[in-house]
Amino acid sequence: MEVQKIKELKNIFKDRIRFEVSMDKYTSYRIGGKCRAMVFPERIQEISGVVSFCLKNRMPYFTIGKGTNLLVSDWGFDGVVINLSKTFNRFEVVESVAKNFRMVFSQGGVNLLLMIMGLGKEGIGSLEFACGIPGTVGGSIKGNAGSFGMCISERLERLQVIDSEGEIREISKKEISFEYRSCNIPDDYIITGAWFKLQKRDKKIFDKLAAKYKLMRKKTQPCSSFTAGSVFKNPPGYNAGKLIDMAGLKGKRCGDAHVSAKHANFIVNTGKAKAKDVYKLICEIKEKVWEKFRINLELEIVLLGEGFI
């Protein structure tokens, strides 16, 4: 990165910017090369500022929270990473809505599970089904995360975003089209905050539901391993994990990456796996499932950086 550009970014972020950062330390896969710079904004205006900087200098940027649902290339990312998880992580109950509901505001970098459990202590539920889903609030909204037949968009009211011009905007839920594990929010929009309409919940009932969903996830998924979560979306009418298993790929290995024996829609890093190892398995899975079932599996995880063909 040019010296002048480094100085400009340093003037904005002072000691909250790092250069040539290894992404493996910031992803749940523990995989990835270096990004040119990583910034840790404390105010929404700083996010807007770095987006404007990147647009002006024609430099790519990417936002991360906990680095879940993400596979970063071994070559890294030739751009600026905006990390929201360390400083953009506040949530609060902002108002009562009707008799049994509360409006909750969360910043985009909030750990989803910590928010759910924190609200549960205050007698607020409705998101128990998401217990155990890794990642942050912003990422879960962009991917319309969900489980057990429910998804996070069902509880959403409106969003605060930085748009593709670097402007701060609010968007109502009515303006967004949510589908299975996706929505039409542009990729270059950054979700900085969200309002949820959540129901009051007896604490004992909340604890029971949260424990139930956590246990169900623990029984069926490799929760203690280095993964990015589900690799593929479930095709309409099918279960991606079962298709992969039926194709004979459960346990398949490439280097230190292997298809989980517990759930075939997870690829696990068992040690020092590289992105190329994971990607080779992804390609083989897509090929074998297509050959056997004529079903095209669509990625749920995001590929970031060069080298993915």
TrEMBL record:
Domain annotation FAD-binding PCMH-type: ranges: 31-201
Q: Which terms does the UniProt entry file under GO BP?
A: cell division; cell wall organization; peptidoglycan biosynthetic process; regulation of cell shape
Location in or out of the cell: Cytoplasm
Q: Which cofactor does the UniProt annotation name? A: FAD
InterPro entries per record: FAD-bd_PCMH, FAD-bd_PCMH-like_sf, FAD-bd_PCMH_sub1, FAD-bd_PCMH_sub2, MurB, MurB_C, MurB_C_sf, Oxid_FAD_bind_N
Active site per UniProt: 181, 230 (proton donor), 300
* Source species, domain of life: Bacteria
Q: What is its EC number?
A: 1.3.1.98
Q: Which HAMAP family does the UniProt entry name for this protein?
A: MurB (MF_00037)
What exactly does this protein do?
Answer: Cell wall formation.
Q: What is this protein called?
A: UDP-N-acetylenolpyruvoylglucosamine reductase
| Organism of provenance | Candidatus Schekmanbacteria bacterium RIFCSPLOWO2_12_FULL_38_15
- What gene name is listed for this protein? murB
